[in-house]
Design goal:
Elements lengths: L8 E4 L2 E5 L13 E5 L6 E4 L2 E5 L1 E6 L5 E3 L2 E3 L3 E6 L21 H5 L22 H4 L19 E3 L2
Parallel strand pairs: 1-4, 2-5, 3-6, 4-7, 5-8, 6-9, 7-10
Length: 159
């Protein structure tokens, strides 16, 4: 997670079955997911999968440009969970060292912007250059679009 530049990932035509905690653990019986996009993971196409007998079929922990479409859920406690983690982590009072645990741009962007110390300098990173900028133009205006941390441009349909 924590990387809005992870674009072009596809999970399709897969089957997940029996995704449950069957034995008690020291944590009790924690929720488990067949598909888990953690901490604002972005750019995933998840479609035409079958998930049977799962605590949670799909968990989207915020993120951008994730598309969850035409999946089949059977005997799942929750088919799709979608939350807004990340909201508020990029305002002037919080960023770059967010008290909420969001970390720095280097932690968020990893090797994509390894030389950037905060998102105000993202314009000089690799995501503004070819082939990134050509294939994923939304990344070039990420800082300017006014919704950093918000779970935007996601689609959950036909499930």
């Amino acid at each position: 997670g924590r990387n809005w530049a992870t674009r072009g990932n596809v999970l399709r035509y897969s089957r997940f079955e029996g995704i449950r905690t069957r034995e008690p653990t020291s944590l009790g019986s924690p929720a488990v997911q067949a598909i888990y996009l953690d901490d604002q993971m972005s750019g995933w196409e998840i479609y035409n999968n079958t998930i049977v007998d799962s605590v949670q079929g799909v968990l989207l922990g915020g993120g951008r440009h994730n598309h969850v479409k035409f999946n089949r859920f059977e005997r799942c406690d929750t088919a799709v969970h979608f939350d807004s983690r990340g909201i508020g982590c990029f305002d002037a009072a919080c960023y770059p060292l967010c008290a909420g645990g969001c970390g720095s741009a280097r932690q968020l962007w990893g090797s994509v912007a390894a030389n950037d110390t905060d998102l105000s300098t993202l314009g000089g990173s690799m995501v503004t250059l070819k082939p990134w900028a050509t294939r994923y133009p939304a990344l070039t205006t990420l800082v300017q679009d006014g919704s950093l941390g918000d779970p935007v441009y996601n689609e959950i349909v036909g499930n």
